[in-house]
C-alpha cells in the first residue's frame, strides 16, 4: 500500500504547509495526486486509493481528510489539491463560488444518512430526537454547523422538529464527524449525531438510537480543482470513484447511490 494519508489538522495553515511539504518531496512516481475528502469518507477512500494505485502504478494518491468546509478553505488559500470530495452540496457550492473547482467536472457519487448514536452500554433509553431534551441527557455531540456538513444536516433536522435550541444548549460541537463519533465511543457524551457509515465502523462501541429524517438529501459531490497541474489524472480518479468498481467499494462501506 503506497498512498499516504494526512492526519486531521486543526489549523488551515498547518494543513497547507503539510501538504506543500508532502507534494514537494522527491518521488519516484510520475504524479502525486492530492485528494481532499470529507472525514466521513476516510475508510472508503483509503481503499479506493489503494485500488486506484494498483491499476495506475505511476500515480501515488495523497489523501487529506477533514471537515468539508475546512478543506474547501484550504484549497481557496492555495493548499495543493487535485480533487475535492465533499459531504454536502453546500461546501461544494462554496468551492464553485470561489472558482476553485471545475464546475463541469462536478458529480454526485454517494449518499448517506444522518443517525443519532449512543454509547453501546448506554442505559438512558434514548429512542427519539425529543428524548434529547430530557433532564438526564446532559451532553450531545454534533458537527459544528458552520463548517461541518453533518452539523448542518443535524441543525436542519432538529429545527424542523422545534428542538434545536434545547439540544444546542447541551451541545458539544465537533470539528468533524469522526470527532463526534469519538466523543460517543469514549462515553464523553450521552449521544451524538454522525453519518450511518461512521456509526458502522464502531459497532462494538456505539449503537444507532435514531435514524434522522432529513428534508435535504445527504449527497456527496466530487470535482476536479481548477489549480490542478494534472487534470488527466484527477479526472481519471473521479471517473474511477464513479465507476462500477468504485461504487462497489463505497457500497461495501455503507454508502448508497446518490
Question: Could you characterize the architecture of this molecule?
Answer:
This protein folds into 2 domains: 33-111 and 219-253, D-Maltodextrin-Binding Protein, domain 2 (3-Layer(aba) Sandwich); 114-211, Periplasmic binding protein-like II (D-Maltodextrin-Binding Protein, domain 2, 3-Layer(aba) Sandwich), CATH 3.40.190. Helix content is 37%, strand content 22%. The protein has helices at residues 12-24, 42-55, 68-76, 89-97, 149-160, 164-168, 177-185, 196-199, 231-242, 244-252; strands at 4-6, 31-38, 59-66, 83-85, 107-111, 114-119, 140-143, 171-174, 191-195, 206-211, 219-224. Strands 1-3-2-4-11-5 form a 6-stranded mixed sheet, with helices on both faces. The protein has a 5-stranded mixed sheet with strand order 8-7-9-6-10. The protein is elongated and about 55 Å long. The model is unreliable at 6-28 (pLDDT under 50). Keywords: Metal-binding, Molybdenum, Signal. Residues 1-30 form the signal peptide. Molybdate binds at residues 40, 68, 177. It comes from Cupriavidus metallidurans.
Amino acid at each position: 500500500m503506497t498512498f499516504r494519508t494526512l492526519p486531521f489538522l486543526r489549523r488551515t495553515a498547518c494543513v497547507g504547509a503539510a501538504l506543500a511539504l508532502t507534494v514537494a518531496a522527491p518521488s519516484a512516481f510520475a504524479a502525486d495526486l492530492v485528494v481532499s475528502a470529507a472525514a466521513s469518507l476516510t475508510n472508503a477512500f483509503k481503499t479506493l486509493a489503494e485500488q486506484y494505485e494498483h491499476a495506475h502504478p505511476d500515480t501515488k494518491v495523497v489523501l487529506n481528510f477533514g471537515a468539508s468546509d475546512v478543506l474547501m478553505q484550504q484549497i481557496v488559500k492555495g493548499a495543493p489539491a487535485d480533487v475535492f470530495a465533499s459531504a454536502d452540496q453546500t461546501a461544494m457550492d462554496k468551492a464553485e463560488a470561489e472558482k476553485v473547482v471545475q464546475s463541469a467536472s462536478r458529480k454526485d457519487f454517494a449518499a448517506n444518512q444522518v443517525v443519532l448514536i449512543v454509547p453501546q452500554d448506554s442505559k438512558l433509553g434514548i429512542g427519539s430526537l425529543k428524548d434529547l431534551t430530557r433532564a438526564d441527557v446532559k451532553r450531545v455531540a454534533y458537527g459544528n454547523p458552520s463548517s461541518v456538513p453533518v452539523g448542518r444536516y443535524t441543525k436542519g433536522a432538529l429545527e424542523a422538529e422545534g428542538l434545536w435550541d434545547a439540544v444546542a444548549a447541551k451541545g458539544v460541537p465537533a470539528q468533524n464527524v469522526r470527532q463526534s463519533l469519538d466523543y460517543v465511543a469514549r462515553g464523553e457524551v450521552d449521544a451524538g449525531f454522525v453519518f450511518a457509515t461512521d456509526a458502522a465502523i464502531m459497532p462494538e462501541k456505539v449503537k444507532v438510537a435514531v435514524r434522522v429524517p432529513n428534508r435535504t438529501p445527504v449527497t456527496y459531490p466530487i470535482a476536479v480543482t481548477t489549480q490542478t497541474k494534472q487534470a488527466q489524472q484527477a479526472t481519471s480518479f473521479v471517473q474511477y470513484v464513479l465507476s462500477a468498481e468504485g461504487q462497489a467499494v463505497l457500497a461495501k462501506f455503507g454508502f448508497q447511490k446518490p
